[in-house]
Amino acid sequence: MELIGYPGSDGAVAGPVREAIEGDPRVARILRCIDDRLEDPGLGCTLLQAAFHVSRPTLYRMFQPLGGVSRYIRERRLLAARRRLRDEPDRSITWLLYDLGFESERQFQRAFHARFGMSPAQWRLQSRRREQAPLPV
């Protein structure tokens, strides 16, 4: 089964994701659904339970190796935000955060800083500087 981008940058299936998929093959389908619906602010346990006909305890068990459903969704959204901050430099941070399903600017700013050690604006500025740096001769 090919799971491009879950969540290793080289397309390899990382340890916790592999463990979750091996524990229950439905996890791969749920992970794809999460990535396809990152922009949906309603994405969460209730939506996934209904879409995949699983109980809340079953869903929680499936996602235990990944740190939980909400944590996994937040992580995927933060990684997507980081990519888009780099790839869409003219797009406002406020637009990006709502486009990726975050419910408030404060929530996004705090989560981003906790995960990456800097604000989204600082990260964007740093990524621009790296792109503009002259290549070594």
From TrEMBL:
Keyword DNA-binding applies: yes
GO molecular function annotations of the record: DNA-binding transcription factor activity; sequence-specific DNA binding
Keywords of the record: DNA-binding, Transcription, Transcription regulation
Residue span, HTH araC/xylS-type domain: 28-126
InterPro entries found in the cross-reference section: AraC_XylS_family_regulators (IPR050204), Homeodomain-like_sf (IPR009057), HTH_AraC (IPR018060)
Keyword Transcription applies: yes
Pfam families the record matches: HTH_18
Protein name per UniProt: Helix-turn-helix transcriptional regulator
